[in-house]
Amino acid sequence: MLKKKIKWFGVDCGSADHSMNTSIRLMRPDIAKRFEQRVGKSCEDFFGHFHYVHKKSGRHVTENMFPFLATPFPKA
Questions:
Q1: How far is C-alpha 72 from the chain's CA centre?
Q2: What integer best gives the mean pLDDT of the chain?
Q3: Which of 3, 19, 41, 64 has the fewest CB atoms nearer than 10 Å to its CB?
């Protein structure tokens, strides 16, 4: 999407992020544990952290969940 410079899209779901890269992993530790057993890493290690600059304030942000909410359209 970034390469094609798509400026708008819609999805009918709670998040376009992987479920275990959202707050679901905190709300459902039983499912997170099964995921971690399957991949052999903690959710945080598997997905890592991402960094972005907030478009309005200019502050630098580091997060470990919901990267799709912040990274596709930083100038929108």
A1: 11
A2: 85
A3: 3
